Amino acid sequence: MAAGIAHADTTLLNVSYDVTRELYKDIDSAFVADYKSKTGETVSVRQSHGASSAQALSVTQGLQADVVTMNQPNDIDLLAERGQLVPASWRSRLPDSSAPYTTTMVFLVHKGNPKNIRDWSDLARPGVQVVIANPKTSGNGRYAYAYLAAWGYKKQQGATDAQARDFEKAIFRNVPVLDAGGRGATTTFTQRGISDVLVTFENEVGLMSAGPGAKDFEAVYPSVNLLAEPPVSIVDKVVDKRSTRKEAQAYLDFLYTPAAQEIIAQHHLRPRDATVLAKHASEFKALRTFTVEQVFGSWQKAQQAHFADGGTFDQIVADRN
């Protein structure tokens, strides 16, 4: 879907991940109006959505994205590594490591929390059933965050890597159905009634809170959590070829404006703007968080150690039963 009128001076393509369709629909409309008022020029924005890693691959294979708005840094690193579509230093080009918003993991439990699930350690307790999507097959890898969050929680307690691995094993032994995707995991828990807790993203819980079954569930925030920082970037080779760098840069800069940050908050994602965040303080609880870089060194290191074929995750899943 395009935001703007049919006869645009410039058209941008935003290649994004699967759950941001409505977010960017609203942002695009606001950007088009803002850009028109400031420059007198008409820009339209087209959107492409799908599994984040698959979307990144499509760009490396020729999809003409002016900007990419991905789920995790690995997906933009891929553009630097394959075809040099962006510089390796892409994170340094925008504030907050080029991530205009954040989110985190929460536990969705049945109303009243009958199993008294409060923290990551409770997911490893005998008799607790956990729904979590497979971080290797959930398309865009979003649920790698849940796995890494649990590992980081254990490491924050002073555990060794071996102890963290055993902790993950205990959690995944409690997973009766390892759903291939995030939507499937949500359906398994909320509609099929399987398990005691769903590990999902805060923004998805926000979306569910408006749904018809919201009264049957409640959110639990663990004591410490992984900060998810979905990043954005211009695709340099494309904007230079299409002469759209000015408009693409304006689009990404707009994401950090109070107007766009308010739209981000309304979609249950945590805005970077402190004033906007404070305005929504009742929804966004203060959190103790850590980053992938702090615990694992980098996203590349985490990917290689845990999610490459034969890596730690494969070993843990093989030992589930």
What would your notes on this structure say?
The strands form four sheets. This protein has a five-stranded mixed sheet. Strands 7-8-6-9 form a four-stranded mixed sheet. The chain has a two-stranded antiparallel ribbon with strand order 5-12. It has helices spanning 21-39, 52-60, 73-81, 95-98, 144-156, 161-173, 182-190, 202-208, 236-242, 245-254, 258-266, 274-279, 292-296, 299-307, 312-318, and strands spanning 2-3, 10-17, 43-50, 67-69, 101-102, 105-110, 130-131, 197-201, 217-220, 225-226, 232-234, 270-271, 289-290. Helix 1 links the parallel strand 2 and strand 3. 42% of the residues lie in helices and 15% in strands. It folds into two domains: 2-101 and 229-279, D-Maltodextrin-Binding Protein, domain 2 (3-Layer(aba) Sandwich), CATH 3.40.190; 105-226 and 291-318, D-Maltodextrin-Binding Protein, domain 2, CATH 3.40.190. The longest helix is centred in the N-terminal third of the chain and has 19 residues, at 21-39. It is globular, with a radius of gyration of 20 Å. It is of the alpha/beta class and 321 residues long.
CATH topology of the largest domain: D-Maltodextrin-Binding Protein, domain 2
Tell me the structural class.
Answer: alpha/beta
Morphology call: globular
Percent of residues in beta strands?
A: 15-25%
Cα-to-Cα separation, first versus last residue:
45 Å
Got a strand count?
Answer: 13
* Main sheet overview: 5 strands, mixed
Report mean pLDDT, rounded to a whole number.
90
